[in-house]
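Subject: design request, 368 residues
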């Protein structure tokens, strides 16, 4: 994967699947070369009153619409043991999304590599890449994506996997390219199929920044949940300062995850965003449940401590009408100097997410 492959904006978005003309292209069809690319990060959220099937069908609809609107890529994240999240098996979900789209890049944001054997991940994503050439990304994280009990169940017999992350990434790269040194015991293993897939390092601390820089890989910082207190700027500055050019990249490719939601008015946007905010408050206090409705969030009796959590989360969110969100995204990208932003929209229902995606695309395409 070259720098140009990372930054070339596709033309998806000039029309919808039914032939509708004039669908806005959120990334400008290449017209705004200095502007950060927008992509989507989805968790296959399960709302109160929805089934897992409903959630997965919603994610599929979002991916189809994101393609029509010109978003660069659509990633799903690995999480376990959470009633509000249906994306526990990214490779399986990506296969389904790829079968229902034609051009948008699809990937993991990310696969939590310590939960898996690198060879298994190489074969899963190699199979995806063989089925859908030049469309599959592999974002890698080192957190469990779960609580400690679920992490133990996932990693049984692999104690210390977090501390071995760099070695796991190295093995994964060699499996993907079938290029282990001849003296390595794994050199006799041939993964099937051998299909190199672009790798991205995800992180919420300086560890991922250092590793991505060392390996010359793109780096995506989790601004949407770890950006408070200057963490985002510090991690990205570290990544840039330590970056070593590689066969993958000649220069750094910094990315961030961003929580954003647009609606017809700022008031409506904040009402819809309340559902996702309450879901995060409940999650952080160990109360696992489906995403509440915005009405439930509006009626919820927040404690002073919970309101502090809301205020902290609000400092990294962009919520408002279409113009406000589009401007906020561009200002955030300029502030941190990022090449790409992955938008995560925390809401209860599919209509709010779809409408937000459309409004952002329209407002972004209209900005000079």
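Subject: RE: design request

Done. Sequence follows.
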């Amino acid at each position: 994967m070259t720098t140009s492959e990372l930054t070339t904006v596709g033309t998806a978005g000039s029309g919808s699947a039914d032939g509708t003309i004039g669908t806005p292209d959120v990334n400008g069809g290449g017209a705004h070369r200095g502007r950060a690319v927008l992509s989507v990060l989805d968790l296959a959220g399960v709302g109160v009153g929805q089934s897992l099937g409903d959630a997965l069908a919603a994610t599929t609809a979002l991916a189809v619409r994101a393609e029509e609107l010109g978003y660069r890529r659509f990633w799903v994240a690995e999480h376990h043991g959470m009633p509000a999240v249906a994306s526990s098996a990214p490779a399986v979900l990506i296969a389904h999304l790829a079968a229902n789209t034609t051009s948008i890049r699809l990937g993991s944001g990310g696969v939590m590599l310590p939960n898996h054997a690198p060879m298994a991940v190489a074969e899963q994503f190699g199979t995806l890449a063989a089925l859908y050439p030049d469309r599959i990304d592999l974002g890698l994280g080192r957190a469990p994506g779960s609580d400690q009990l679920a992490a133990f169940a996932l990693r049984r017999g692999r104690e210390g996997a977090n501390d071995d992350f760099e070695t796991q990434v190295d093995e994964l790269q060699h499996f993907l390219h079938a290029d282990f040194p001849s003296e390595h015991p794994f050199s006799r293993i041939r993964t099937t199929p051998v299909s190199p897939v672009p790798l991205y390092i995800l992180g919420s601390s300086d560890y991922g920044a250092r590793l991505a820089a060392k390996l010359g890989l793109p780096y995506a910082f989790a601004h949407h949940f770890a950006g408070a207190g200057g963490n985002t700027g510090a991690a990205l500055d570290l990544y840039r300062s330590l970056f070593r050019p590689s066969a993958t990249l000649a220069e750094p490719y910094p990315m961030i995850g961003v929580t954003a939601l647009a609606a017809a008015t700022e008031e409506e946007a904040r009402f819809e965003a309340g559902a996702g905010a309450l879901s995060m408050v409940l999650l952080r206090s160990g109360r696992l449940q489906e995403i509440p409705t915005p009405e439930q969030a509006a009626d919820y009796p927040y404690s002073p401590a919970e309101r502090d959590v809301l205020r902290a989360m609000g400092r990294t969110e962009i919520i408002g009408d279409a113009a406000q969100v589009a401007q906020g995204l561009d200002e955030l990208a300029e502030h941190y100097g990022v090449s790409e932003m992955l938008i995560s929209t925390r809401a209860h229902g599919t209509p709010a997410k779809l409408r937000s995606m459309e409004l952002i695309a329209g407002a972004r395409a209209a900005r000079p």
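The domain at 29-366 is CATH 3.20.20.30 (TIM Barrel).
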